[in-house]
């Protein structure tokens, strides 16, 4: 006897499997990422523009600084939430 | 939460400086080697958590207050944002790397892939700010949880 919840679980599982199988079929072969103009630009210009040897850091803190700002905000929010919860528990 | 035995404390004393040095190295060399503020901050915070486990939250709370930790975390966040805003003043856009190519701090450009600590422009400054933020934030989480456990043990 399948309940409504079981049907929902089976449906969700089927949809996820279909998506995963199609994305596996369409995936790039290992070691051959899709080429884009932006990748080549960063590889060519990161040392001259940011002065950093580490290209990943130059992307994270310079080209995509907004992403790091969001990450820092996430961390700040998490710490604020944990401290708020445990401060009430301490009293 | 009381501290652990003398054996654990001795081993923690021996390993603590190495963990600190490695974490601070990862933060400081974020623009040269793999790693950066987040990763190095996590290493340093785990070293502080080692001390917290070995010595207990009561001993640690005589050395540092959780208020100071949130102050340090806010200072790190403010430093990060103010470096980003200084980019508007000196470089024209938000997050502009205005220090690169100047003779000022961290202005050098490495030629031919040579590792030079005095390079990277604003990247090292942002790494330091994020590192401070992650150290204080992650340690504050562990510390506040340990304090709550010790309060619960006292009342029980």
Care to describe what's here?
The complex is a heterodimer of chains A (91) and B (156). In chain A, 78% of the residues lie in helices and 0% in strands. Chain A has helices at residues 4-25, 37-50, 55-63, 65-90. Chain B has 156 residues and is mainly α. Chain B has one domain. In chain B, 69% of the residues lie in helices and 0% in strands. The longest helix of chain B has 33 residues, at 123-155. Chain B is elongated and about 60 Å long. The chains are: A mainly alpha (91), B mainly alpha (156). At the A-B interface, helix 2, helix 3 and helix 4 of A face helix 4 and helix 5 of B.
Task: Give the tally of β-strands of chain A.
Answer: 0
Radius of gyration of chain A: 22 Å
Class inferred from helices and paired strands of chain A: mainly alpha
- Tally of structural domains of chain A: 1
Tell me the number of strands of chain B: 0
How much strand of chain A? Answer: under 5%
Number of self-contained structural domains of chain B: 1
